[in-house]
Automatic annotation (TrEMBL):
This is 8-oxo-dGTP pyrophosphatase MutT, NUDIX family. InterPro entries: DDP-like_NUDIX, NUDIX_hydrolase-like_dom_sf, NUDIX_hydrolase_dom. Keywords: Hydrolase, Magnesium, Metal-binding. GO terms for cellular component: cytoplasm.
Length: 152
């Protein structure tokens, strides 16, 4: 599913791998698919809603929950991931980790004005190509570009 990236050998022995779920929130406007990106709370980079697996929820259920908490999205999330991406976080207190993120498509039915993180994040609709150019993760950008090819 995911192209294996080579990690720096020095890093490979010191990092842990964490599984996460993400929601690729989308809609189709005038025949064109759009995805909803949100900003991170810290740096303001553009990402998709994601988080650690939640006990008692399926991975796609976790993706739906993260979409609600981080973006105010309600909708239908597919039970099967359509892709994965990796990202690396260096945290001084918690230690560094590589995150393996399964991505679940979520058709957006509505957006709430207020949701748990509404004061901490921005959200914006992007075309797939523009979204790929705005995210900082090369793996996520590649995933977005590959989804774009399905619609052409």
């Amino acid at each position: 599913m995911i192209e294996q990236r080579q990690l720096n050998l020095h890093q490979a022995g010191t990092v842990r791998v964490v599984r996460q779920s993400a929601a690729l929130c989308y809609r189709v406007q005038r025949g064109t698919p759009q995805v909803l990106l949100i900003t991170t709370r810290g740096s303001g980079r553009w990402i998709i809603p994601k988080g650690n697996l939640i006990e008692g929820l399926s991975p796609s259920g976790t993706a739906s929950q993260e979409a609600w908490e981080e973006a105010g999205v309600t909708g239908t999330c597919t039970p099967n991931a359509f892709g994965q991406f990796l990202h690396y976080k260096r945290r001084y207190k918690k230690g560094s980790a590589v995150y393996l993120v399964d991505v679940y498509p979520l058709v957006v039915k509505s957006l709430a004005a207020r949701y748990p993180e509404w004061q901490e994040r921005k959200r914006r609709w992007f075309s797939l190509g523009h979204a790929a150019s705005r995210v900082n993760s090369p793996d996520l950008a590649s995933l977005l570009r590959n989804v774009e090819h399905l619609y052409h």
